[in-house]
Specification:
single chain; mainly alpha; 153 residues
Length: 153
């Protein structure tokens, strides 16, 4: 009957039997009973400050590594970063994306064309001291993200 009235939002049959048992045993309220002690939470001011300090020292850390350092679960760390510290993960620098097969073929074609014309090109090249050439070490997109606040550049 519940499924006919509520459809997919109806309680499961086992839950109905559980509540029937609770009420037949004398329970009068559907709210949780009082428990001793303080509710368990890791979103304390102390943990928020720790995570804020960790992120300020290294903005490229993952949620998993921060959670390991502070010894709390990843979802709590994610909520502290996004909700309490108002941070989000953005790419720190432009990272080349993976190419499609068509783009790879086009690059090969261009490189072959350049190799065929290398004598013409090298005859017009200006050379210089190699100290001005900087090494480019590409990163993968997953390696480059950093945490930033809403008002940081």
């Amino acid at each position: 009957m519940l499924v006919q009235v509520y459809g997919d939002n109806a309680m499961k049959e086992t839950a109905v039997y559980k509540w029937v048992k609770h009420f037949s045993e004398g329970r009068e309220s559907v709210t949780d009973k009082e428990r001793s002690g303080q509710p368990a939470t890791s979103r304390t001011e102390e943990n928020i400050a720790k995570i804020h300090q960790i992120v300020r020292e290294n903005r490229r850390l993952t949620v998993r590594s921060i959670a390991k350092q502070v010894n709390i679960d990843r979802e709590t760390v994610r909520k502290i970063l996004t909700e309490d510290l108002d941070m989000k993960k953005v790419c720190a620098k432009m990272v080349p994306k993976e190419l499609t097969e068509e783009q790879k073929e086009r690059r090969v074609t261009i490189c072959r064309d350049l190799l065929e014309r290398q004598d013409d090109i090298l005859g017009h090249a200006i050379t210089g001291d190699e100290t001005w050439v900087y090494q480019y070490n590409p990163e993968m997109k997953r390696q480059s993200p950093q945490w930033k606040t809403a008002n940081s550049p």
